[in-house]
């Protein structure tokens, strides 16, 4: 450890080396009170954090497809940000024809990485043609897989803060979700415009220590025995100001491959607590992350329902869009 730290420059502003600089996050008095070895340990921990941040930092990657001007002449009330794989063209088309259709208040964008395997060249060509046709795809050059969802989520946050700063709200929502856009916009009209995030709030989450689990987290990577409150990644809504703040907070939060928990860790860093969205009188969650059989009037009082592949979404949407107001 001494060799690593000694090879770096120790200045008043921070530790630098290998082309980057880690700022001190404590005041000079605290640093002065530490022994030389304690100071080295502190600087090494900051170096590791900086290297970790590079994994999720948007500037680590480059855009292959982008829509930088989509908000130039408008400030959408709600931006739908949909993480999706390149091969899921059917899901994107179904969303465009249903809850993600272009509207006066809403904007829908799809975020993708590079296909992990298979017909990469053909998929890329198809994606580029789709982007030319619809101008709603944002792609960066990281491998698109489950463990990189944290990277994709931070990419979405940074994109929103950079290219659509006038938006009021945003929703990160998976591609297999039914979204009641009508009820959602109605609810948001009276919601806070800053430091606000809502969804299916999980308050009792704990890390899985079984190496065979899809959600495995080692004690080395995450030593705490519980998670702070976080919102399920299936779909959550937040005031658009949080995009820039979450991007900033990610500089100080160790990367883990659970994107919704990671956002919760960033929120804890910011002192922001997610708000549980429920209906009265039975305190039913408005964000249903389990599958429900379609019923127009049940869905009319929910914001999301899980488990809607493209064909299923298309089959129910016309009935819902035409009849939800009669419920």
From TrEMBL:
It is a single-pass type II membrane protein. It comes from Amphilophus citrinellus. Belongs to the glycosyltransferase 31 family. Gene3D superfamilies: 3.90.550.50. Pathway: Protein modification; protein glycosylation. InterPro entries: Glyco_trans_31 (IPR002659), Nucleotide-diphossugar_trans (IPR029044). SUPFAM superfamilies: Nucleotide-diphospho-sugar transferases. This is Hexosyltransferase. The keyword Transferase applies. GO terms for molecular function: N-acetyl-beta-D-glucosaminide beta-(1,3)-galactosyltransferase activity. Keywords: Glycoprotein, Glycosyltransferase, Golgi apparatus, Lipid metabolism, Membrane, Signal-anchor, Transferase, Transmembrane, Transmembrane helix. Its main location: Golgi. The keyword Chloroplast does not apply. GO terms for cellular component: Golgi membrane. Pfam families: Galactosyl_T.
């Amino acid at each position: 450890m001494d060799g690593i730290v000694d090879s770096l420059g120790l200045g008043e502003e921070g530790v630098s080396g290998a082309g980057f600089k880690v700022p001190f996050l404590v005041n000079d008095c605290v640093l002065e009170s530490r022994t030389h070895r304690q100071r080295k340990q502190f600087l090494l921990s900051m170096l590791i954090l900086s290297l970790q941040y590079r994994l999720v930092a948007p500037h680590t990657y480059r855009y292959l497809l982008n829509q930088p001007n989509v908000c130039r002449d408008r400030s959408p009330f709600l931006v739908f940000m949909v993480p999706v794989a390149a091969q899921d063209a059917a899901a994107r088309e179904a969303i465009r024809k249903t809850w993600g259709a272009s509207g006066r208040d809403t904007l829908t964008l799809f975020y993708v990485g590079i296909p992990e395997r298979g017909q990469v060249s053909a998929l890329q060509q198809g994606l580029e043609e789709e982007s030319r046709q619809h101008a709603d795809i944002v792609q960066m050059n990281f491998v698109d897989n489950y463990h990189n969802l944290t990277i994709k989520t931070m990419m979405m946050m940074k994109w929103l803060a950079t290219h659509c700063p006038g938006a009021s709200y945003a929703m990160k929502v998976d591609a297999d979700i039914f979204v009641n856009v009508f009820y959602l916009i109605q609810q948001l009209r009276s919601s806070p415009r800053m430091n606000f995030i809502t969804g299916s709030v999980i308050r009792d989450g704990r890390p899985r220590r079984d190496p065979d689990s899809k959600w495995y987290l080692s004690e080395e990577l995450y030593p705490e025995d519980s998670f702070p409150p976080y919102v399920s990644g299936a779909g959550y809504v937040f005031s658009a100001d949080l995009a820039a703040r979450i991007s900033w907070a990610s500089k100080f939060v160790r990367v883990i491959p659970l994107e919704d928990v990671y956002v919760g860790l960033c929120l804890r860093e910011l002192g922001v607590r997610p708000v549980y969205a429920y209906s009265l009188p039975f305190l039913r969650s408005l964000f249903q992350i389990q599958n429900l059989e379609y019923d127009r009037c049940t869905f009319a009082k929910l914001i999301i329902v899980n488990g809607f592949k493209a064909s299923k979404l298309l089959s129910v949407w016309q009935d819902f869009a035409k009849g939800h107001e009669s419920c």
